[in-house]
Amino acid sequence: MIDEKWPQARLIPTLPGSGVEAQERRAASVLLAVMQAVDEFGRALLKPLGAPAGRIQTFIETPVRLSDGRAIRPDGIIVVSRGARSWTAVVETKVGASALEPDQIEAYLDLAREKGFDAVLSISNHYVTSSSDYPIEFDRRKKRKVDLHHWSWFEVLTEAVLQGKLKRIGDRDQAYILDELVRFLEDERSGALPFSSMGPSWTAVKEGARDQTLRKTDEHVAAVAARWDELVRYVELKLTRDLGKDVRPVVAKREEDPLLRRTALIESLATSGQLYAQLQVPDAAGPLNVVADLRSRQITVSTELAAPREGRTKGRVSWLLRQLRDAPGDLAIGTRVPRSSSTYAALLGAARENPEVLYPEPTKEVRGFVLKLSRNMGLKRDAGKGSFIESVATTVEDFYEKVLQNLRPWKAVPPKLHKKEEVAEAEDLIEVPKELEPAVEEAREEKAEVALP
Question: From 132, 277, 311, 427, which residue has the greatest number of CB atoms within 10 Å?
Fold first, then answer.
């Protein structure tokens, strides 16, 4: 399968040329070389694609000719071998603002199918999200018998940072090589960029939501809905990097199909001006619910927490307030009661002064709490101070740091076994009315007699 003419990926490439194409070749060579050199890193990236845990070999600028005469030179090829089994993928890379091209991806699918390769892998600054199984449209018929995968550069960087944080790289030299990859990808000159723009449709949709003139059939609405899911994926990866834990999106059953998710987002944006998402942080007390309301120009992050099953309203509210000592005073708290969709709400600052503002009627029981933090929405399209992207990422991080990470779900205390001596001591503390003292004394004497050998 491996052609001796294929040049190997180099950690320090000396490729000719300048401009975006040379930048793409360098990025491909560096990444593929590190995947081959650092076993744990390469396997962590390739295992979800179906590759076996075997020897990884990587090549760049590999010339291949198809039976119809077409000459194709993909950016790279990955070969994973284990015993008699091998897995091979064709690699296409894009950097900066360069977009994936349908014709190119379809040609690589033809190549993979004809040569018996297992997959085509693209890497760019696009994101695969819950509303898109691939960043661009292409001829789906070309995908028969070949898997098509996509990574964002930020996803690759996140995995590299995670490997370092979790100390998964045992070899010192390999750990150094991986650190150098992180340094390379974090430099904007590599062309590997974080999520940076809501796209050209942002201004029209932002104003249309405020004026309530958006339509579900408007292509600008569909474009912003797609960008929103990319932004959510970026925030999810950013949290994963910072926490060292795999943060995952939570999608309702009715939205598990990417097309249904996209349709639901478009419907919500057009009718209510809202975009929404949910993230789950491992071991957190509740989910992270994120809502961007383009009408009110507010970003709201919230979570739900079950109340203790023991005690009364006062104790349950106190249990929550104790956990929110460091939370901001403008955190909104709502108490949930059975058979009611409404909540009894107040700001944390007011609840600290007077917890009773969260108490429902005496006949109702507190079953849970809803905690919400709202911030003004950034209006700028592109990333940076005052941007929509920055306001979403910052609000999510603030809520997690100041609220969610400090919450612990309620856990019942196991019952304690009382010893006989403790019971006897408790009986001695009971005050007996004078008129009953003779009878009690007589009973004690009878008990003592029974206890004699």
Answer: 277
